Amino acid sequence: MPPDTNLRLADISDLEKLAVLFDQYRQFYDCVSDLNKARGWLEENLEAGRSTIFVADNGAQLTGFTQLYPALCSVDLVEYFVLYDLYVSEPARRQGIARALMNTASDWAKAQGAARLDLETARDNIAGQALYRSLGYELDEVFLKFSLDLNA
User: Fold this and answer.
1) Residue 76 burial (CB < 10 Å; 0-12/13-18/19+)?
2) Is-contact 143 76, C-beta < 8 A?
């Protein structure tokens, strides 16, 4: 990771810069760019404390972020976190920022008493999958994920 990059918890003062990164992240997953919606989502998350966001900050700009949401597992009777978002801007990739963000997130979740950290990624996100495996994440081959679109 670049020596001038600091990993830290995001706060409301990061909103404008973070919204740009979040909008780029959503476009990576084929969503239409909507900076106002991205900003609104993050603002609500930060103000309501409904997620925890870590950023990579080099002083001049934010170069990456990860966002975690709290969750519960009634089968195992544990609290855990879902690492839902991870993004590093294109010019800052391949410098160890994503790995550092992931390690920061897992250290923080462990300190919160979480039993585990879960994530999902696109089947074609080969680079992400390689990173997750290298950090010890294991592919769940037992459970299937189903979704019901309530807006259809």
Assistant:
1) exposed
2) no
Are 65 and 53 within 8 A, CB to CB? yes
Please write the tens of the pLDDT for every residue from 16-60. 999 999 999 999 999 999 999 999 999 999 999 999 999 999 998
Q: How far apart are the first and last CA of the chain?
A: 43
Q: In what order do the strands lie in the sheet with 6-9?
A: 6-9, 52-57, 62-73, 78-88, 117-118
CA distance 130 to 134: 6
Q: Is 13 exposed, middle or buried (0-12, 13-18, 19+ CB in 10 A)?
A: exposed
Q: What is the mean pLDDT of the chain?
A: 95
Say if residues 115 and 78 touch (Cβ distance below 8 Å): yes
Q: Are 71 and 118 in contact (CB under 8 A)?
A: yes
